[in-house]
Amino acid sequence: MLNYKNRANLKKGTETRHHYHDISADKEEEENEYEKELFQYIQEFHKMTDFDQSMFQLLLEMSEICNSEVLIELSKLNIFNLALSFVSNDSSYVSDFLTIISDVSKLENSGIIFTPDLLGFLNSLIKPAISDDDLDCLANIISNFATSGPQIASLITQYGTINKMIDHFNFKITGKIEQDFHPFYSSILELFANLLDIPNFQPVNQIDIIIEIAFKYVAIENEDILMSCLHILTNASSEFNFPRFLPHFNKQINFIQNLLDFIDSEEEEVYSEAFNILINISQFSPYFLKKKIFDDYKNDIMMNLPTSIQKNQQNYSNVMRFIGNMIETKQDIVEKLQEKGIVDPSHTNMNDFSDYRTPILDFFKEFIYFILQSFNDIIEGSPETEVFNTDDKSTMAWLFSVVTETGDSEFKEKFIQDKRFIPNICFLFHIEPEIDFDILCGLYNLLRFASVRGNEMVKYVIGLISESISEEELRILFDDNEEIEDANYLEKLDDVLDFYAIIKDNE
After folding, report:
1. Core-most of 60, 162, 345, 456, by most CB within 10 Å?
2. 36-40 — which CB contacts under 8 Å span 24+ positions?
3. How many other C-beta atoms are found inside a 10 Å radius of the C-beta of residue 443?
4. Sorting pLDDT into bands at 50, 70 and 90, what band is 356?
5. Chain mean position to CA 385
6. CB 278 within 8 A of CB 230
7. Across 182-338, where does the E strand assignment appear?
């Protein structure tokens, strides 16, 4: 039989394998040796006549370097069911068995070894006597399997596994968590977070308790628990889960202050998750709630957002997205006017309204001007501001379309009079269809505003547009773009081109 190596030595083989792209002869030789060794392990299982202690030890040693292809082979040989039967008869191997399952459950196709019997065994381990290390390992296993897909996640919740994890978490956690911290705390919290991030799945009976736990422990001074709680709240505030998140947030609205503090953190993981939650809240909350957040925290927002950019210019996109979500939309204004009986519900054209207020947009005006100026510098190649990637540019185009729709005359005038901005924003054409459409919407809003001032103003705006893209290039851009399926794209293009026709007719 093969002379077994210990797991530490096998791990070296794994690390070598991860660097297989190195073309040196030594590296290639090590890679070949690793593949040969793995093949030998598989052969041992093929020759197996009985699953005994030696076979269990072999599985333990190779599980860390197991890949998806090997997992399929082992599954065909029924190895994991045999291992489960073996450990069920000898509890001294439970910890090693959890190590094995933890290793292989990380693989993309790990669902092929997941069975009700395995889940039942794992469930039976969740009890006060379980060691902290085994609990940590068990939480990771459940999390890995759950994220394989909604069917497995649903089975896990139906078996009561999540309820037992919640009860055990509440049983174990104490007021001394900062001093008595163990990784199983964050592992269980990460399990909860991952449950809220599975497509087309929601732990209906557990989600409220999970959200309450996250709000309760997010303030604990432990970085691991903080990150896990923020991760839960990010997923809980997603569009899919937001209806369940909103009632909890309404009771914890002062959590906004925590998030504003977190976005100024030096830790990228912390400020990124905090921004994710802020962006979700600002995107999916009804206007009255956004207005309350604005009224209660506008000064803190205005203090923390610029600071977050100063600390890390990668936050430009996060800040733009948050502001764009917070400011009044066309629909917000229409609904407010309709509620007051000011306008007939059938009227939805913003340009038909002259009496509406946009307090949030008005408050952020100067800050948006600052972002606009930064955008000009970035597009024109200022070396200290080379931080905009495609997502940032997409956000800028989207923000441009939003603020030119609801902004007042002074605001729109600012865009037009800044001779650099319109040519620069038009440089973003040709990147992706969504950006093209948002730019078109913004240009249409400005051209419509300019038309009120007369044909000379329209001609001036068209001249700025033409510095970057001609009328013919606009037509070609949208006529040839096969990705554009939404009729709104072409309709908006026609709206913009109509202004070109007006100028030609008057020349």
Report:
1. 162
2. 37/13, 38/62, 38/65, 38/70, 40/2
3. 28
4. low
5. 25
6. no
7. none
